[in-house]
């Protein structure tokens, strides 16, 4: 299997892994390709760097959700461990690192595939779009069905991996949280709005997370908005709010207005724009819940099967 002499290794939950290469990094974490020293199987190792006790709690929330959700369309957790920092790191105000070992998906993300299609001047077939959406929605349903319900809050093509057989897998639960929140004070509103600005991607963020109002509430239908944007991206290869974003317009205002334009002569049936418009309601209470979305997609797929 080759010699790993001199290669960096680390221990996670009593298992030894060798670091092979850096796969990527985000605002709060790094991802490395690692190999299990015993089985030689490869995994992704997500390192979450925490700078405070509050960040530690957020990181541990991700672990908690991954351990409690067991579904083929949600990324599983192989093992994890928390590591206190050494003396030198404390100069950087780092309190700890959390190591999460997760599967490697060689086919990459849906965003990778969307980028490839755009470069080639191609698009998904309508059947492929509904199949992908059904899988993503089933993963989201697993989060929403938890007691209490969890919301992902950062659903986007970048956060959906694909298995070798094309099965979509919802990943990156670092933004996930208890879905139903009562906003009773200005401080509650400010706190949630700041958290959303930090962790929820603008192009897929629900309007109620751009401007959080006092004496209001949010629930899991923040994810339904994001799913509507994901459906648009699968069909038209970009977020429905890409144009106002590129112009430098206010995305908060653009989402509140929810004036969605659909490309002409896309080759798709009216079911795609109709379903997107049904999900992208600026008022959360007018949006469907995940079970209704799944039922609608199932009905569309059933119609298509009968037509064939």
Automatic annotation (TrEMBL):
Residues 17-301 form the Protein kinase domain. Its EC number is 2.7.11.1. It is an enzyme of class 2 (transferase). GO terms for molecular function: ATP binding; protein serine/threonine kinase activity. It catalyses: L-seryl-[protein] + ATP = O-phospho-L-seryl-[protein] + ADP + H(+); L-threonyl-[protein] + ATP = O-phospho-L-threonyl-[protein] + ADP + H(+). Pfam families: Pkinase. GO terms for cellular component: Golgi apparatus. Coiled coil: none annotated. Keywords: ATP-binding, Kinase, Nucleotide-binding, Serine/threonine-protein kinase, Transferase. SMART domains: S_TKc. PROSITE patterns: PROTEIN_KINASE_DOM, PROTEIN_KINASE_ST. InterPro entries: Kinase-like_dom_sf, Prot_kinase_dom, Ser/Thr-specific_kinases, Ser/Thr_kinase_AS. PANTHER family: SERINE/THREONINE-PROTEIN KINASE 16, SERINE_THREONINE-PROTEIN KINASE 16. This is non-specific serine/threonine protein kinase. It comes from Candidula unifasciata.
């Amino acid at each position: 299997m080759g010699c790993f002499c001199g290669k960096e290794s680390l221990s996670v939950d009593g298992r030894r892994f060798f670091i092979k290469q850096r796969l990527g990094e985000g605002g709060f974490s790094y991802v490395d390709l690692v190999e299990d020293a015993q089985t030689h199987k490869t995994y992704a190792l997500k390192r979450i760097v925490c700078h405070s006790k509050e960040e530690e709690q957020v990181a541990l929330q991700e672990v908690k959700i991954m351990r409690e959700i067991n579904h083929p369309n949600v990324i599983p957790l192989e093992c994890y461990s928390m590591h206190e920092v050494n003396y030198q790191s404390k100069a950087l105000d780092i309190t700890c690192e959390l190591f999460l070992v997760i599967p490697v998906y060689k086919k990459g993300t849906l965003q990778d595939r969307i980028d490839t299609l755009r470069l080639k001047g191609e698009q998904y077939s309508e059947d492929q779009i509904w199949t992908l959406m059904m899988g993503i929605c089933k993963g989201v349903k697993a989060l929403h069905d938890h007691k209490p319900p969890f919301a992902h809050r950062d659903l986007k093509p970048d956060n959906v991996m694909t298995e070798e057989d094309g099965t979509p897998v919802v990943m990156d639960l670092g933004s996930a949280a208890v879905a139903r929140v009562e906003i009773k004070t200005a401080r509650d509103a400010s706190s949630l709005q700041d958290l959303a600005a930090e962790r929820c991607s603008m192009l897929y963020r629900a309007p109620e997370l751009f401007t959080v109002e006092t004496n209001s509430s949010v629930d899991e239908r923040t994810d339904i908005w994001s799913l509507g944007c994901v459906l648009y991206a699968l069909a038209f290869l970009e977020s429905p709010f890409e144009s106002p974003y590129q112009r430098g317009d206010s995305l908060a205002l653009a989402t509140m207005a929810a004036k969605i334009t659909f490309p002409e002569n896309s080759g798709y049936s009216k079911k795609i724009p109709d379903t997107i418009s049904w999900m992208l309601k600026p008022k959360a209470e007018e949006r469907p819940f995940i079970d209704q979305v799944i039922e609608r997609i199932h009905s569309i797929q059933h119609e298509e099967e009968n037509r064939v």
